[in-house]
Write a structure and sequence with these properties.
heterodimer, A: alpha/beta, Spore Coat Polysaccharide Biosynthesis Protein SpsA, Chain A, 2 domains, two-stranded parallel ribbon, 18 helices, elongated, B: mainly alpha, flat
Chain lengths: ~425, ~230
């Protein structure tokens, strides 16, 4: 069993005080003042029994730990945990995944009945929002609860274009945010995440994909609508680096669970609860020209790299697309899904260096974004949602192509 | 006088024909041995290729963290091993052929010279292989990074990097083969130094105005509120 770095005495103290019903783990550095405020709010919102069985774990060291300990006056038990020192150049998702694993390990050690992992901005730390997770875990017997965040038309495009539809097509779970920053899990799901953590410490996959784990283990996944949005610090982040990290991690998972997803046919809807947050209209339109220019630049210069990965028919389609007038620039869903599948296969076969491979995907992704932006510019947020649904269906329809290429990569593919 | 010229011509022709007649068995022996070893090399390469494909050598070797195809996409491990086997037999054939040539002719010391030169050729071949692979890899890295940075001259940059590595490799290979002597070192030094100087001058002189304008613009620019991104990839 994996071990957290939390002091043994602290764990024993916590367990002796009362059994842990719910462990709330905060997955990134937290502001002590803000945490204090939210804990007070939580205590007033929770019933006494709920409070006594709840432990809040936060990444603690040095000053923050002392500050939080000083304000620990209420009955909620607070517990610091140590995160392994991460590379300062690591992407936020990678740091967050390490913390999520540490929280799962801690939940296992404390024998917590359920565990909710929340983002460091503690926006989720309110009794109403947490109850959405705990109710789904306890009353609906869900093993994993993931949130559905309210989003604008042009938000989370990497998730909507690759992560979510690919996860849905592969593992058959219609989950909107497979890389959720918050999630709740039952004790057996926690164990699953913890065990897999210890096995894959040195593997390529640096991110945590609970939805995939739940699907592979045949555990029940549920979704809850939440009215929280987490701001992502995008300053200084390069799109190609993020794409390589996030999409590369999904591809690594694909390699790992290939025997499972090749058997999955069609996707199933995932139970959704909670009130739908009001859709926010973006108002302003986005200029697609810089995106199309990036695609065209890639098309002019990266043909030799794309030719190593993509079949001739796809290259032909891309050449046709490059000759389109900017206003009629549209990338068909089938083409995009096949491109993603071909890149996944090249990732598995190591056709070219993986860094080069993911770098070569970036202009294609920007081409898809340009096409999407032009298509939904005049449409409502609801219509944009339907557009994502249409894309997800295209991924599912193209899945036999992936399975065939995955099984027989040397077979002639025009 | 004409008789003397005719005699000397006849004598020299006779000497040449005699020399050719002396060397011909050696040359024929060399060609014959080389042809035999070429056939053996081809058969051995075919056999090795089939065996490696049967044991799925490429798949087994691609299980590691870094593979050959990642560096050189057109070279699979099977192709590399096959080529090594083929060229090993050809090299052996050349050496045997040279020995046969020496045995069949009156010339001596040829095989000793060729045998002493073989390690240099092998070293040069290894240098050439790695130089080509590294040049192509770096060129592709630069090309992809430059495209993702939206640089219009991405291809030019990539080609520049590739040829710099190729020129460096060629100089090293020629030096290793002891061909050209100091001319290669001198030419390479002049070429490389020239390129670096040209770039330094181009950047230094050409961008002087650009840098000063950019600095002026930065100094005079009013503090702007950050523009909110309308598009969010993550």
């Amino acid at each position: 069993m994996p071990k957290s770095d939390t002091a043994e005495e602290t764990k024993v103290e916590i367990q002796e005080a009362a059994p842990v019903d719910l462990l709330i783990g905060i997955s990134s550095a937290v502001n002590p003042g803000e945490l204090q405020q939210h804990v007070k709010g939580l205590e007033s919102g929770f019933q006494h029994a709920e409070v006594s069985g709840t432990v809040i774990a936060y990444p603690g060291s040095g000053i923050e730990e002392a500050a939080v300990r000083d304000m620990q006056a209420g009955s909620t038990r607070l517990m610091p945990y140590s995160m392994a020192a991460s590379d300062p150049t690591s992407l936020p998702w990678v740091v967050s995944a390490a913390a999520q694993r540490a929280i799962c390990a801690l939940a296992l050690e404390l024998k917590a009945k359920s565990c909710v992992v929340i983002h460091g901005d503690v926006g989720m730390l309110s009794s109403e929002r947490l109850r959405l997770f705990t109710q789904a875990l306890q009353e609906k017997q869900c093993d994993l609860v993931v949130p559905v965040y309210p989003s604008k038309k042009f938000d989370g495009l990497l998730n909507h274009s690759i992560l979510a539809p690919l996860t849905r097509a592969l593992y058959g779970q219609r989950v909107r945010y497979p890389l959720a920053q918050d999630f709740g899990c039952s004790s057996r799901m926690t164990q699953q995440l913890g065990e897999n953590h210890s096995v894959r410490e040195h593997s390529d996959s640096t991110l945590l994909w609970p939805v995939t784990q739940a699907a592979v283990s045949n555990y029940q996944t549920c979704q809850v609508n939440v009215d929280v949005q987490h701001a992502v610090q995008t300053e200084g982040l390069e799109l190609s680096a993020v794409l390589a990290s996030l999409v590369g991690s999904v591809f690594a998972e694909m390699e790992r669970y290939a025997p499972f997803w090749q058997r999955v046919r069609n996707s199933q809807p995932v139970a959704l609860s909670g009130n739908i947050a009001q859709q926010v209209s973006d108002g302003e339109t986005v200029d697609a020209k810089p995106l199309i220019d990036s695609f065209l630049l890639g098309s002019r210069n990266l043909q030799e790299v794309w030719a190593l990965v993509l079949p001739p028919v796809t290259l032909l389609e891309l050449k046709k697309l490059a000759r389109c007038a900017p206003e009629s620039f549209r990338m068909p869903d089938e083409l995009w899904s096949r491109i993603v599948y071909d890149f996944a296969l090249a990732y598995r076969l190591r056709t070219i260096n993986r860094g080069h491979l993911m770098g070569a995907l970036t202009p294609l992704y920007l081409g898809w974004v340009a096409s999407y932006v032009q298509e939904v510019a005049a449409r409502s947020p609801m219509a944009a949602e339907q557009r994502f649904e249409q894309l997800a269906k295209a991924y599912e329809e193209s899945k036999p192509y992936l399975v065939s290429r995955w099984r027989w990569p040397d077979r002639f593919n025009p | 006088m004409w008789q003397q010229i005719e005699d000397s011509l006849r004598e020299s022709m006779g000497r040449v024909f005699t020399k050719i007649a002396t060397l011909l068995p050696g040359i024929l022996a060399f060609v014959f041995v080389l042809l035999i070893f070429l056939v053996i090399a081809w058969l051995a390469a075919m056999l090795v290729r089939r065996v490696l494909m049967a044991v799925k050598f490429d798949e087994r070797t691609s299980a590691g963290a870094t593979t050959l195809t990642e560096w050189a996409p057109l070279h699979t491990p099977t192709i590399l091993v096959t080529k090594i086997v083929f060229w090993s037999f050809v090299t052996i054939g050349v050496l045997v052929g040279v020995s046969a040539f020496e045995a069949a002719s009156t010339e001596s010391g040829i095989s000793a010279y060729v045998f002493a030169y073989v390690p240099r050729v092998i070293g040069a071949a290894i240098l050439l292989f790695f130089g080509t692979v590294i040049g192509r890899f770096l060129s592709r890295s630069v090309l992809i990074s430059a495209v993702n940075l939206n640089l219009q001259y991405a291809r030019l940059l990539a080609t520049g990097v590739r040829w710099l590595v190729f020129v460096l490799t060629a100089a090293m290979v020629l030096d290793h083969l002891a061909i050209g002597g100091e001319i290669v070192d001198l030419a390479f030094g002049i070429l490389f130094g020239g390129i670096v100087l040209a770039l330094a001058l181009a950047v230094g002189l050409g961008s002087r105005d650009l840098v000063s304008r950019s600095l002026e613009r930065e100094a005079n620019r009013p503090v702007e509120a950050p523009v909110e991104e309308k598009l969010h990839h993550f």
